[in-house]
């Protein structure tokens, strides 16, 4: 395929060269490879997914079907290559999704909150997706959260703040990328709802916009550039948690399969697919929502694996995380050496569905007058908790959280502890998932991300580059090298 | 070198074939390899060491020398190959060191507490060290905890209970292995102190016994079989925590270097070196003791790396963990996205040294009459905590723990919570390390082990077998295959 000089392209659009490609920043960590350049590249990102999240899904998958101890491996955890990846950002050992996305998409460390700009917010970075686009690949971006969220944005936008979601969305419409699918937009008309609707801007840029299951399924390669927003959006314009998804709702796997159908072409494609709500469930310390979204991501990966079976020598599939969320562990002090993962399977909806559903309605109906006895049957049914078998301390914790949810203050439970106890979530809901998780033997240490390294699984053309222990910026470097997008000493893209 | 038929050997000593080598249990996961059989094999086991422990040591090593964000990699974390290893045992997702040691040493899953026997406690398993010994390798076993502890015992003993420490020690004296070094014996004369001293038994079996630094340093290959017990033993006949080690005390690296000197011979050697107190520090939620013992293990690995540089094509070095301990995370709710690893460097001694030193003396001198104000200066000096800057809740937690340490009971702090709060440790000590760790941004979820997979790093001849994601029993299988100890369909050891 025809390649264009990258330096010229970058200068033309006013971009700095990626850090790793500037003089003196030779990507020495990338070993020489004779692997042919993969034509089809999938990058799956489990937001907030590290080894514990993957292994928890494997334990869960085994535990719900059998009393036998063992794991049922996911599809992607059976990939032939697995490496460990550090995720720290420029100013902290704990990254956010903006700096982690920037690292993987552009090879540069920056500060949390910043997308594809340096910590001083002056230089802009080219992304792997832009470089691939310039080299002739078609580009797809899929996410279960809103398409203007930090992780998907890291592949097409450059903004000083991830909160500039309208700016991000506008850059989406200007990206020229071929396929966007999944969640919607957090600020489609800007923060003050006074800007041009990004859907209109996308249409003006030539995108076919769909947001129904039927229109989505009717999409064909002749549809041209596509922006597909899910019909059902749950929280913050994101697709529903997998455990809340109705049979008629499209899944992350549906968006991935459609992407393959639309992007498949002789010059190849690069598709990034994010399982974004693994992270959100981690923040809320909700193991069941976390695990089921890891499994949803694995189902999406299965679509790529099916495609790869038809193009075995030309396809690379990577599955990684951008950071760990929650300090999740397969072990809790109260259960010592035992785990009971089948217990979380009793939870019937995500923390979000419970907060937005029952809790919202109950609070509206019982302003300051709620009775804890009222809610116990609902709690028992929704979370599979049995009050008769709980310790008095657990019951006290739950009742205090209920009072706090209803707006009351608690004696001996000062407000200085509110964040440690509830992390800003609905107090009753978060306490219920925490205690259910503890019964299962699952512990959490934080409502934020952690610095625990993530795992990168690889299968296909070039997989051998992704073993070992390396940094998230190396994912960019390895991909650029492998896809022959590497800028050499003459700063031009090496010809194929 | 001459190889003997394994089946004959095993039958002769009354052993069952390892599970993985029985008919129908082909170790299919082990890919074919053309790598020459390594002559020198090192297996380093960080007890309780998973990715978080390794990365924490790397963050700490960087943080104490620089304000810059980044990691200072350990020697072994720079090894070219890294894989992930599941650790579950036959009856639980969370293993202990006996079943994990059995898995790595014999390729068999068993129950926690059992060493080299099946869950029914009837069949015995041959170990990789015994198989290597039979094939002509010299064998060394080093541990920073007592030599009769579960991990070292897994390479030479077969007992229904790891608590049978005298039986284990007797089996050590009968093993014929060439070098034992590190900690001492927990029950040298049996539980009731009425049995023959194992040191005498070892001498009768031809071992040269040393337990002084001078005698240790004088050991030469002509010393024959060696049993070297550290002059200074801290808790449970273990070597001191690295942070409590006096300049004159021998280190894990010293025991490793001496082992290399004594074992080096034309037919090769197999040496297992355990950093056993990483685990003990994890149980006690003491990050500084944990990190410094990971660094001590890395220093021991450096001795193997130095040896390997002289025998690059004949040496394999593996560094793994037997399980994770503590649910350690690089992130705590109270510090959100920040970490402050330099804070733990202010801790001047291990939890154990504080409990055995100051606390023991203070409790003896102030039976029920202690004053919290008395101990605050000691706490501040020992753990680098500043009471003036702590939250009222933290101060309350510490004062309650102090009262509990002094034998009092706490209103609003019922005994049902004692284990959750203190895990059976001295209440004040464990609360101090927990709060110091929280200030550093380090969280813990349990006082026990967890099911979080561990990392296996590999360097040298056959390293390529140790990438990917596999089970701890596969470590045995891969080693047996690589060292040509594998039993083929005819159940004999394949000739070299």
What is the 3D form of chain A? globular
- In whole angstroms, the N-to-C terminal distance of chain A is 7 Å
Low-confidence stretches of chain A: 1-32, 488-496
Number of strands of chain A: 12
Helix tally of chain A? 17
Residue share in β-strands of chain A: 5-15%
Oligomerization: homodimer
Radius of gyration of chain A: 23 Å
Question: Structural class of the secondary structure composition of chain A?
Answer: alpha/beta
- What about the largest sheet of chain A? 10 strands, mixed
Largest interface: A-B, 66 and 67 residues
Give me the strand/helix succession of chain A: HEHEHHEHHEHEHEHEHHEEHHHHHEEEH
Kindly report the spatial arrangement of strands forming the biggest sheet of chain A: 5-6-4-3-7-1-8-11-2-12
Mean pLDDT of chain A: 91
Helix fraction of chain A, binned, reads 25-40%
Characteristic key phrases:
homodimer, 496 residues, alpha/beta, ten-stranded mixed sheet, two-stranded antiparallel ribbon, 36% helix
Write structural notes for this entry.
Two copies of one chain form a homodimer. Chain A is α/β, with parallel strands linked by helices and 496 residues long. In chain A, 36% of the residues lie in helices and 12% in strands. Chain A is built from 17 helices and twelve strands. In chain A, the strands form two sheets. A ten-stranded mixed sheet of chain A has the order 5-6-4-3-7-1-8-11-2-12, with helices on both faces. A two-stranded antiparallel ribbon of chain A has the order 9-10. The longest helix of chain A has 24 residues. The radius of gyration of chain A is 23 Å and the shape is globular. The termini of chain A are close together. The N terminus and C terminus of chain A are likely disordered. At the A-B interface, α2, β2 and β10 of A face α2, β2 and β10 of B.
């Amino acid at each position: 395929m025809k390649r264009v000089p990258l330096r010229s392209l970058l200068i033309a659009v006013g971009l700095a060269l990626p850090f790793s490609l500037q003089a003196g920043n030779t990507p020495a960590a990338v070993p020489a490879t004779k692997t042919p350049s993969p034509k089809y590249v999938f990058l799956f990102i489990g937001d907030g997914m590290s080894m514990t999240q993957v292994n928890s899904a494997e334990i869960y998958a085994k535990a719900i079907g059998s009393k036998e101890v063992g794991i049922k491996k996911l599809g992607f955890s059976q990939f032939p290559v697995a490496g460990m990846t550090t995720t720290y950002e420029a100013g902290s050992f704990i990254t956010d999704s903006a700096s982690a996305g920037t690292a993987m998409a552009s090879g540069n460390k920056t500060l949390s909150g910043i997308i594809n700009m340096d910590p001083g917010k002056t230089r802009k970075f080219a992304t792997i997706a832009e470089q691939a686009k310039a080299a002739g690949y078609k580009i797809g971006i899929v996410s279960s959260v809103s398409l203007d969220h930090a992780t998907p944005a890291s592949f097409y936008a450059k903004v000083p703040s991830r909160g500039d979601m309208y700016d991000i969305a506008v850059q989406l419409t200007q990206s020229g990328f071929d396929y966007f699918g999944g969640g919607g937009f957090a600020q489609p008309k800007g923060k003050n709802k006074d800007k041009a609707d990004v859907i209109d801007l996308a249409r003006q840029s030539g995108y076919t916009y769909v947001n129904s299951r039927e229109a989505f399924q009717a999409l064909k390669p002749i549809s041209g550039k596509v922006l597909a927003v899910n019909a059902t959006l749950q929280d913050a314009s994101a697709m529903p948690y997998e455990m809340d998804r109705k049979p008629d709702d499209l899944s992350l796997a549906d968006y991935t399969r459609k992407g393959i159908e639309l992007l498949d072409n002789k010059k190849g494609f690069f598709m990034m697919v994010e399982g974004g709500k693994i992270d959100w469930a981690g923040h809320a310390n909700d193991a069941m929502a976390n695990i089921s979204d890891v499994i949803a991501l694995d189902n999406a990966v299965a679509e790529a694996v099916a495609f790869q079976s038809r193009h075995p020598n030309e396809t690379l599939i990577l599955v990684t995380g951008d950071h760990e969320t929650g300090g999740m562990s397969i072990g809790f002090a109260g259960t010592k050496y035992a785990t009971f993962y089948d217990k979380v399977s009793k939870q019937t909806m995500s923390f979000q569905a419970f907060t937005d559903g029952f809790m919202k309605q109950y609070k509206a109906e019982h302003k300051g007058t709620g009775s804890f006895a009222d809610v116990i049957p609902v709690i028992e049914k929704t979370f599979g908790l049995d009050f008769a078998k709980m310790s008095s301390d657990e019951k006290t914790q739950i009742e205090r959280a209920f009072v706090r949810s209803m707006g009351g203050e608690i004696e001996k439970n000062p407000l200085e502890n509110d964040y440690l106890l509830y992390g800003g979530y609905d107090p009753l809901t978060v306490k219920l998932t925490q205690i259910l998780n503890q019964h299962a033997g699952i512990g959490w240490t934080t409502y934020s991300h952690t610095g625990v390294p993530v795992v990168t699984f690889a299968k296909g053309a070039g997989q051998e580059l992704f073993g070992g222990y390396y940094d998230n910026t190396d994912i960019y470097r390895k991909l650029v090298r492998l896809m022959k997008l590497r800028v050499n000493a003459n700063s031009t893209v090496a010809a194929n």
